[in-house]
Amino acid sequence: MTEKKEQLVVLVDDDPRIRELTAKYLSDQGLSTITADSGKSLDAVLKNNDISLIVLDVMMPGETGLNICQRLRVNEITIPIIMLTAKGDEVDRIVGLEMGADDYLPKPFNPRELLARITAILRRQDSAKIISKNKVVKFGDFVFNIEQRSLHRNDIEISITTGEYDLLKVFAERPMQPLSRDQIMQLSRGKELDVFDRSIDVQISRLRKLVEEDPNKPAFLQTKWGFGYIFNPDGDTK
Length: 238
Description:
The chain is of the alpha/beta class. It has helices spanning about 15-30, 40-50, 65-75, 90-100, 110-125, 160-170, 180-190, 200-210; strands spanning about 10, 30-35, 55, 80-85, 105, 135-140, 140-145, 150-155, 155-160, 180, 220-225, 230. Strand 3, helix 3 (about 65-75) and strand 4 (about 80-85) form a beta-alpha-beta unit. It is globular. The relative contact order is 0.10.
């Protein structure tokens, strides 16, 4: 029997007090945690460790959290990212999601909530390794392998983040089934949708850029006006 790999989280924040207190709390709860104070020190951590998740503060001097997130995704580093944003700053949250973040938490935050967010993402990663009854879903020129967590177009692999995978898996397992934003949030993240939360719309917009010929006229991830979204693997826009 293969021994389960230890899950390791890196917390990136330029505030030493937040780093130390949060890392101590996460470690006390049984979650192995490394800290970094900048994008440069994060790079060193990633080079020398097998990281399961990144907690990334937005507001940092020099290279901001948003810049770091964008750089990682451009370099096809798909490790899940939770952004720590200023309370009430919706712009940072939306931009972070557009750049490839998987979730966000406004500061100041309750460490218990951060732990819950981390645990939820890591649990989804583990459960995704269980063989699905529909292991491979084909739509257009795409082949989405749920078990292998891979997306190919014409035999060329497309880099996909954990958040994008979770979202596409929800749709792929429920073709032609209209899903509300609340349902999508529950199925993909296991939490309730806040009335002002636009993250589902932002992530679907990001996913459309991966799989749609024209994201403004989606054939596969279609909008169900007044309700939510629907996945049409045949790409029929009529």
